[in-house]
Amino acid sequence: MSPGPPAQHRVQGQRRVHVIGLGMGPQHLTAEAVAALRSVEVVLAFDKRADGAGGSGDPLLAVRRAVCAEHGVRLVVVPDAARDRREGLTDAEYDEAVAAWHRARVERWAAAFAAHPGDVGLLVWGDPGFYDSTLRMLDRLGEHLAPGEGLDVVVVPGISSLALLAARHRVVLHEVARPLHVTTARRLPEALAEGQRNVVVLLNRRLDLADLDVAEWSIWWSANLGAAGERSVAGRVGDVLGQIEAARRQAAETDGWVMDLYLLCAPDDGAVAPRG
Question: Which secondary-structure segment (H or E) carries 100?
């Protein structure tokens, strides 16, 4: 029998919300995650590609739907809010676009929570504590609740993409007693300008490494970890960038989406071959 979710005292008037790390797919659900999933009455999930007529082309929603079906939990689909994804936004404009998107999502959550008064589950891709805003939005959801109503949030960790990246390439992400800098593609130039030499990069809309002075650096890249379209490439950036671009397209063609990340390391004493 799977262990149940951590025992917690339920405060009077609070609704329990289980924020469950999904890892990169159903094969990464831990026993704790399965127990939490089976304890809720419904799972809420945003549909990022709703067509307005009840259909969807969102492949990540399809994964959540399969997980819920496997464990006998009802899935409630919430049409996602539109997000400003224009190219060339300044940092301030980008931050405001994300904030506006989150506000709209919270409003849609509020309506869904009102319609489903029992315990609720939220399946988070990867780990809820790493480059995900579910917990921040739940904090804001309190502004929409009825007086005296609150949320009792239980977080179940998931397998992160960083852990899978290291596993797939059989590497440690940092040298002995050395730091690891984790950032987004948008802020990679800033990290390099600061002198970071061991960087993991996530949230890539595209790969812009050709525009940076990293041809001699080493890279360990993976996309769609755990999915059918999973791809991995490693080597000297100047040698393998074309391979990565091709693999990225293949991953998107196979799965209908692409989520990639990579470890980027500066050459050390002329050594540029992948370690591991």
Answer: helix 91-115
CA distance linking residue 20 with residue 61, whole number of Å: 15
Q: How many helices (H) and strands (E) does the chain have?
A: 7, 10
Angle at 251 between CA 245 and CA 254, to 5 degrees: 140
The answer to whether the beta carbons of residues 155 and 254 sit under 8 Å apart is: no
Which tokens belong to 43? 């799972």
| CB-CB contact of 112 with 6 (8 Å) | no
Q: Specify the length of the chain in residues.
A: 276
Query: Which residues, in sequence order, are CB contacts of 186 under 8 Å at separation 6+?
Result: 94, 203
Please provide the distance, in angstroms rounded to a whole number, between the alpha carbons at the two ends of the chain.
Answer: 37
CA–CA dist 161, 49 (Å, integer): 23
C-beta pairs of 236-241 under 8 Å, 24+ apart in sequence: 236/272, 236/273, 237/209, 237/264, 241/207, 241/209, 241/210
In 3D, which of 204, 246, 199 has the Cα closest to residue 219?
199
The closest of 114, 31, 122 to 73, measured between CA atoms, is 122
The answer to whether the CB of 179 falls within 8 A of the CB of 198 is yes
Q: DSSP state, 48?
A: T
What's the average pLDDT block by block, 10 residues per block, for the chain (276 residues)? 47 81 92 97 88 60 94 95 86 89 93 92 96 93 77 95 96 92 95 96 91 95 95 97 97 94 83 48
Round to whole Å and give the CA distance between 192 and 85. Answer: 25
Write down the residue that tokens 């593609």 correspond to.
185
Return d(Cα 110, Cα 115) in angstroms, integer. 9
β-pairing verdict for 150-156 and 42-47? unpaired
Give ∠ CA 147-149-153 in degrees, rounded to 5. Answer: 145
Closest CA to 11 of 149, 199, 122: 149
